[in-house]
């Protein structure tokens, strides 16, 4: 398992103007940045992103735009992928953001592993069948208890990745 982040593109003045963003920036400063090699290596990829006006943040979009070579070579096909999202309010575009991200995954030929309603945790965490979503207040505190939903989604994604890998070896 690897945890990585896309490069931050925003100017420090923007980051410093938002206490939660600045705290996150500082807390993740030692997390390595993702590379295309990471995507090629992984059997399962779980994206966790904030929403930006109901869409994928520019930092993630810029990274995804660099995956064309891997896509062209078929090296992203049949990867198990899933996504989670956060926003500042309950109707901040979480579902739309996950679906926007999945559009790229469909082009890759990846296998989208949505949590659906395959576990009670989906109902307890807000009921997003496309990917776990959470509301985060201006101090960076999660408003819903999504821990069980995140764990279920991650386990489901890894399980499906195992099935895909096993099926491709057979």
UniProtKB/TrEMBL annotation:
<dbReference type="InterPro" id="IPR029039">
    <property type="entry name" value="Flavoprotein-like_sf"/>
</dbReference>
<feature type="domain" description="NADPH-dependent FMN reductase-like">
    <location>
        <begin position="28"/>
        <end position="116"/>
    </location>
</feature>
<protein>
    <submittedName>
        <fullName>NAD(P)H dehydrogenase (Quinone)</fullName>
    </submittedName>
</protein>
<dbReference type="Pfam" id="PF03358">
    <property type="entry name" value="FMN_red"/>
</dbReference>
<dbReference type="InterPro" id="IPR005025">
    <property type="entry name" value="FMN_Rdtase-like_dom"/>
</dbReference>
